[in-house]
Amino acid sequence: MASLAVGFECAARHLSLVLLPLLLDLFLWLGPRLSLATLIERLLALWQTMLPADSFALLAETMQDVGARSNLFSLLSPAPLLGLPSLHALHLAAATPWGPRVAIEVSSPLPLIGWIAVLLVAGSGLNALYLAQVGRAFRAEQDEPLPSQPSTATIWRRLLALTAFLVAVILFVLFPLLSLVGFLSLLSTMLAFLVESFLLFSFLFALLRLIYLFPAIVLMNATFLQALRESLTLTQLYLNQTAMLVTTMAIIEMGLNFVWTLPPATSWVRLVSLAGHAFIDTALLASLFYFYHQRLAYLASLKRHYQAQAIHSQVKPS
Questions:
Q1: Residue 12 pLDDT grade (very low, low, confident, very high; cuts 50, 70, 90)
Q2: H/E segment holding residue 96
Q3: Which residues neighbour 298 within 8 Å (Cβ) at sequence distance 6 or greater?
Q4: How far is CA 262 from CA 31, 257, 282, in A?
Q5: Is residue 221 within 8 Å of residue 150, measured between CB atoms?
Q6: What is the pTM of this model?
Q7: From residue 197, how far is each of 135, 181, 211 by CA, in Å?
Q8: pLDDT tens across 182-214, in order?
Q9: At a CB cut-off of 8 Å and minimum separation 6, what does 272 contact?
């Protein structure tokens, strides 16, 4: 709770931090939509000849709804609690107070791959800018000096390394595993469900172990590999405390997201929701920075204590 209090105080004293997430959400709400509807319709036309009528009807209804609301520009924001926040990256809206949104259609796989690559690079840049701002604000709140903050360009390069790592995991690990689940579903629905549940739990656990990547990069000027090693070490040492903090943050995030989405996307009242979401998520990120910094400080104090004891034990009485 102390970490959350510090995070909210930091966000309240540096309200300018909400500007970038607010601008991104305004773009995702009022700007053009990079739609997958045309590409999905082409895929459905192909799958219609391969699937039974009942299965295809259910799939078509789901996929058409996804296509009608899809917006690839959501890739500009990472997952919740992992950097630049956005309400509309998850809660997609097809309409605005001005009426239906302008849609830019992605109609074939090659442009889709190109757009994904461009948006991941641009999103990493925006995330680097936001994290650098939060890092400077957090430093201003600390009495003890921290290592010099890396430049925004350096943070960007390290986030690109993280993005490349995650894309490799998705392509070479996640896709084959999902294909395995699909194959198992043909043999046994229960077996497929058990494997899928295990994979989901493993994914969430892996995400928990990587939770300190951004604080390590921004606060300690760590490279991607150093940040990865440090995050794995700290979550191993403080697994219960980290799990409690992340669970509390997730409950706050999900609970307030329900409140933020109460005003319809066609109402200008949604502006209040976007501002509130930007502030809360910025405060939660600052809380994570503080929690990480405190754990490092405690480990450093223990190290100094043990070193002092070792030196004292080596001194012989005269």
A1: very high
A2: strand 95-96
A3: none
A4: 21, 9, 21
A5: yes
A6: 0.86
A7: 36, 10, 21
A8: 666 666 777 777 877 888 888 888 888 888 999
A9: 263
